[in-house]
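The material for today's practical consists of a large collection of protein records. Backbone structure tokens are a discrete shorthand for how the chain folds in space. An example says more than a description, so a record of this kind follows:
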Amino acid sequence: MGTNQIKNLMSEMKFYGMAASLDQLLTEAQTQSWSHTEFLDALLQDEYGYRENKKTTYRLRSSKLKLQPVFEDFDFTANRSISKSQIKELYQLKWMGRPIVLIGQTGVGKTFIAQAIGTHACHHKYTVLHMKASTFLEELMLAKSSGTYLKFKLKLSKPHIFILDDFGLRKFSSPEAEAFCELLEDRSYGDKSTVITTQLPLENWTEVIEDPVIADAIIDRLKHVSLIYKIKGESYRKIQAKKLDEKKKGD
């Protein structure tokens, strides 16, 4: 059987990684005098890598992460209160199973960090879903009105990590707050984690949650089990604007 026939057979059997690397590996096997076992191992490794990359691509696409940043790109030259050791703590994912709350004013990097968590998790076989708080409220209202609320709940409770971005930009009515509280409850078991970015310290959440009883329940739940990062510093967008202005003056 010729090489092309072997590749066609591999493709028919959906061994696409093997088919793509067969020619190169055959050349390397001949020039480096590989044994049959070494050649087979290399073929299997390429097939495994291909399938894992495909799964990662699918997880990233399903996550709805728009930026897909990486921790390595975090700018530590900006004067912010979050340290390298704290970033390392987030990077290691040992906190899985606990909520994360990132608190800080606009532009300090909350969304970057949250999405970097999601991107990193996708590369480590965790499922992720990112959603703006405004989108959460819109989809919640639609699910309630169309009778698909249980399906909506399942969608949000399934991923290993659910990222709720920009909490507190608009008030939560009592039914909305109750649904949010239920979501936190549903995601409090096993290795599920909820990552929340907000400008409001936990003690101020009563300002945006109309029902004080539900507000207290939500705050109490997060206060005692979450990893809370309070990020202070100048807006990154402002810093970037200054750098551009300085560059223009230099030119």
The chain has ten helices and five strands. The first helix runs from residue 3 to 12. The longest strand covers residues 161-167. The beta strands are 100-104, 128-132, 161-167, 193-198, 227-231.
